[in-house]
């Protein structure tokens, strides 16, 4: 299937989702917010890959929200204008939640999501990458909570997630100043795992890491993602209890035996895939 904002390819158990509007600095237009969750949902629910890699094209990863695409159409009818003004707060809330949900699916899906960032990661771009499992950057990358510079408060996911990724003082400085944070500084903060010399080296390196992840037992990797997300949002004791319950219900002796045998024989493991999700039921 073709998309207006993305190119999608799946090879060797890795789904590669590429933002493909470089002429628009990969800004996030209305189609972006419907296409991204649809793509991720199809990959996850159909068990089409074991890892997702998100990358971009052109000089910048993303310039964030395409505000021009969301401008209201003018109206000469004063009654219509009054009605829209009264509806505006509720409409804004619904729209914000729609955009939030479009990124939350990256966090909620069963498989790891790696993101490769080059050039500017601005505004909504920061919202996107903070919802991914692991972030990598090229040396020319920079990160900006740009909303502050135009009189807004970032509302699509930056703050709830960023304060759990890096020390609070860094979050406050980035938010209050709206300044650009370089790739090296972002690595020092802990926002990105690794910085590569070029965009080409970035993609090669991230795909290599994705291949390593894809070689592991999918059920085990899924469990890791669930446990990490749960532990982040709960107490230590709750996390201990949850992982015990998880393994009691998901433990697969055959997968462990196959992993150990494949390792000793220096061959790829023959693991079962995650089951496809039927009828949109919640993942357990």
What does this structure look like?
The protein is globular. The model has no long low-confidence stretch (mean pLDDT 93). It has 2 domains: 202 residues, 2-enoyl-CoA Hydratase, Chain A, domain 1; 69 residues, Orthogonal Bundle (Lyase 2-enoyl-coa Hydratase, Chain  A, domain 2), CATH 1.10.12. Helices cover 48% and strands 13% of the residues. A 6-stranded mixed beta sheet has the order 1-2-3-4-6-9, sandwiched between helices. The protein has a 3-stranded mixed beta sheet with strand order 5-7-8.
Brief characterization of the structure:
This protein has 284 residues and is an alpha/beta fold.
Low-confidence stretches: none
Instruction: Note the run of SSEs as H and E.
Output: EEHEHEEHEEHHEHEHHHH
The CATH architecture of the largest domain can be named as: Alpha-Beta Complex
**Content-based structural category:** alpha/beta
Q: In CATH, what is the homologous superfamily of the largest domain?
A: 2-enoyl-CoA Hydratase, Chain A, domain 1
Tally the helices. 10
Radius of gyration: 20 Å
**Main sheet overview:** 6 strands, mixed
Q: Could you please say which CATH topology of the largest domain applies here?
A: 2-enoyl-CoA Hydratase, Chain A, domain 1
> How many domain units?
2
Count the E strands: 9
Helical proportion, percent range: 40-55%
CATH class of the largest domain: Alpha Beta
Q: Note the overall shape.
A: globular
Strand residues, percent = 5-15%
Straight-line N-to-C gap: 28 Å
Order of strands across the widest beta sheet? Answer: 1-2-3-4-6-9
Q: What does the average pLDDT come to? A: 93
């Amino acid at each position: 299937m073709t998309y207006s904002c993305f190119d999608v390819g799946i090879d060797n158990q890795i789904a590669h989702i590429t933002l493909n509007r470089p002429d628009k600095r990969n800004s996030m237009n209305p189609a972006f917010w419907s296409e991204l969750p649809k793509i991720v949902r199809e990959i996850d629910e159909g068990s089409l890959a074991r890892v997702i890699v998100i990358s971009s094209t052109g000089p910048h990863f993303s310039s964030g929200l395409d505000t021009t695409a969301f401008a209201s159409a003018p109206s000469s009818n004063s009654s219509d204008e009054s009605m829209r003004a009264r509806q505006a707060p509720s409409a804004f809330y619904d729209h914000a939640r729609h955009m939030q949900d479009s990124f939350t699916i990256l966090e909620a899906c069963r498989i790891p999501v790696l993101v490769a960032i080059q050039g500017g990661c601005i505004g909504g771009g920061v919202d996107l990458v903070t919802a991914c499992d692991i972030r990598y950057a090229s040396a020319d990358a920079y990160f900006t909570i740009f909303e502050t510079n135009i009189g807004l408060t970032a509302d699509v996911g930056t703050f709830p997630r960023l304060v759990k990724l890096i020390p609070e003082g860094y979050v406050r400085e980035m938010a209050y100043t709206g300044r650009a944070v370089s790739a090296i500084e972002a690595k020092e903060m802990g926002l990105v795992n690794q910085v590569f010399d070029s965009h080409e080296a970035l993609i090669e390196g991230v795909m290599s890491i994705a291949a390593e992840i894809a070689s592991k037992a999918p059920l085990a990797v899924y469990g890791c993602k669930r446990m990490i997300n749960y532990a982040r949002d709960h107490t230590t004791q709750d996390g201990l209890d949850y992982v015990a319950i998880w393994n009691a219900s998901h433990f697969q002796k055959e997968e462990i035996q196959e992993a150990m045998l494949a390792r000793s024989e220096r061959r790829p493991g023959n693991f079962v895939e995650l089951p496809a999700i039927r009828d949109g039921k919640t993942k357990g």
